[in-house]
Amino acid sequence: MPVKSALSTWLDNALSEALGFPATSEITEYILSFETVDEQVDYLKEILDLSNSVHAQIIVEFQSRIGPPAPPQGGPVALKAYKKAAEPEEFKGTGKKSAKNKNDDIGKGQKGKTKYVSLYSKDGVAKDMIMRQGRHPCECQTLKHALVNNCTDCGRIVCEQEGSGPCMFCGSLVCTKEEQEVLNRNSRKSDQLLKKLLTNPVEDQSKALAEQRKNQLLEYDKNSEKRTKVIDDESDYFSVDSDKWLSHEQRDKLRKREQELRDKRHGSRLNRKITFDFAGRRVVEEDSGLANYDPSQDKIVQDIMKLGPSQSHFVQQIQHKTLTDGDGVVNPNIKIPRPMRENPRKIVRETFLPNRIQDKELQVMSDGGFCMTMHQPYASLLVCGIKKDEGRTWYSAHRGRLWIHAASRPPAEQEINEIHDMYKMFHGASPITFPSSYPTSCLLGSVDVDEILSQEDYRDKYPRGESSSPFVFVCSNPQELLVKFPMSGQHKIYKLDPGVHQSAKKAVKKAPVEI
């Protein structure tokens, strides 16, 4: 029994150190209750992490401490081998029956005795209910741990694992009834208890680390420009000769300062100072401070660059020239009347409005490369001069030349015949020469848009007009291209590609059809 007690004590301490929480005696007793060493080691492997060297060492030491199973008292007993008696031949059965009996014996040998393990300790508490050190959020709803109290603000059920202190959800103080009675006394002990409940070492440590990280990031952001600045050897020192606005006195001082810095950086090593720290056992060499020299941070250079009472030579010349210009008399007290403020929008409107084109005849004469897509056979009939007007559901302010593009949908033969019959009837006995083909997806020619009328005005001006659309394009001067340019169309009126437009203007046109 003493050996077993020592083993139990050692196992308690080892598990408490490895798991991070105090191991109860029930866990140790449960491990030692197994009959064989292999079962005890298997259970330890389940609750410990074999990848951790400390946990693996605990298992090895446990095996060495418990040792091999002790032999029974009185020394080893010689075991007598059992030999089955010979079975008479008359009782031997067939081969199938013997095989069947053999299989039954194997099955009976494999089935072992069922072993039941108690899930509760001697106190009746479940063995998986383990308390962690400190306050930690727990959602057991007091099914595993004892109740501390309910939060009076949010109603959260606080168990022993969360402990007394600020609520994990809303931050209100939650404590037991005994602690609440102590707090209600308003004594010195009450203040100490309140301070203890409101103090959370883990939270304070996390807050301190967060603040340290915040300060570090702020410091990085503050000196990021200084840390990431690239120092070039050519621009390491301030340039004196390239600055034309310095006086002779400033140039001399800056050259002197530059020479001092160069001597300090590249001077003799005999002038360097070295400190021997015997207490700290170290040798410290004095830093010249020129490793990351920045002229903008040099106070001496900045004082020289600032204009003094006499100011720079160039500024003095400018001021002297201004003061002595003309008669050489300047009255700084001359009062000039305040200029009248003008509306900038009015100025812009008066400046740019006259540049707008207001002449309709000029718009008709110019060719801006505007084009409109139409379906066949109407597109070819309009370019040939058979169709005079084109109807649309939308209005446009365009006047002048309008190029006509044929859509990609080919017309049906029946549709072509019906339209031919309609125009023969519309023009009466006049002979009409219709186009021999109706190409698609190409530029056919151009017409001049004289005016765009609404349906009411169109009927008043042209009672026998052919279009019944809301808006009618009245066209004239049709010109058909001999060479059709393949292209794709767009909606409404759009601008042609500059290359296609220039080629179409230079191409040969057909004469319109005479009706």
TrEMBL record:
Gene3D superfamilies: Hypothetical protein. Residues 7-66 form the Activating signal cointegrator 1 N-terminal domain. Residues 90-111 are annotated as: Disordered. Residues 372-453 form the ASCH domain. One of its GO terms (cellular component) is nucleus. It comes from the Eukaryota. InterPro entries: ASCH_domain, PUA-like_sf, TRI4_N, TRIP4-like, TRIP4/RQT4_C2HC5_Znf, TRIP4_3rd_dom. GO terms for biological process: rescue of stalled ribosome. Residues 233-286 form the Activating signal cointegrator 1 third domain. Residues 136-181 form the TRIP4/RQT4 C2HC5-type zinc finger domain. GO terms for molecular function: zinc ion binding. This is ASCH domain-containing protein. The lineage of its organism: Eukaryota, Metazoa, Ecdysozoa, Arthropoda, Crustacea.
